[in-house]
Amino acid sequence: MTTLKEYAARVEARLEQLLPGGAVVNDAMRYSVMAGGKRLRPSMLLAAADMLGGAPEALDFACAVEMIHTYSLIHDDLPGMDDDTLRRGRPTNHVVYGVGQAILAGDGLLNTAFETMFAASLRDAARARPCLEAMAEIARGSGVKGMILGQCLDLDSERNGVPVEKREQMLEDIQQGKTACMFIYPLRAACRLCGASEAELEALSRYASAFGLLFQATDDLLDVLGDAAEVGKTLGKDEKSGKLTCISVYGVEKTRVRVASEHARAIAALDTFGPRAAFFRTLVDTMVDRTK
Question: Could you tell me the pTM of the whole model?
Fold first, then answer.
């Protein structure tokens, strides 16, 4: 079984090729993309493609997903959003390059992601349709019905508050959008690239939804219980800013229950694939007690 570390190394090497330095905007883009990180989303896309029979474009689509994820982090750290100064263990992009250049670096990564997917799609005319379908999945997951909507709801709830009776549903909407969608739609993209069945598409969607909610719940736990040096970002900011999180809605112990529940849901979703899904079972197991 290929490991997360091995998939991440493949992504890292290809990103080096796709993102040359040079102009300030290129250097700013590289500063955040090449700062490390788990490479979870692109690795999951590659693992799904391998499980489903493979696709020649999978690596470039995986790198595009990492570019989109990193652009979202650059923008999320800006003063007008979460206003953070530490990401992946070092100063955030706008601290180093200034707010204007950081905005452009994020814009550049978003555009380069789609340039990369278009270029991969044009290599073989016979592969155009599955590639376009995969691009549509990634666009949907990162767009105004997915990640951007989740971020918007997050900001709005923080600034304007949420009535007590609506907090649980709002939390679900925020975390499905801003976190889970960027796991769901890359896996759906892998399904499109590989011509997966509808049953496989739906099973991986369920897995990714549970994985994303579990990941966000553990992230919320780390914000109050983690070690800043290990996590690599500023901790304790969510409570100070009044952000809607699993901790603020459920408390620590019920958040741990939520982690266990989503873990069980993720494992159950993999029944469709049998032993082929060993990577995904191992991956979600490692997320339950993560420390960074």
Answer: 0.94
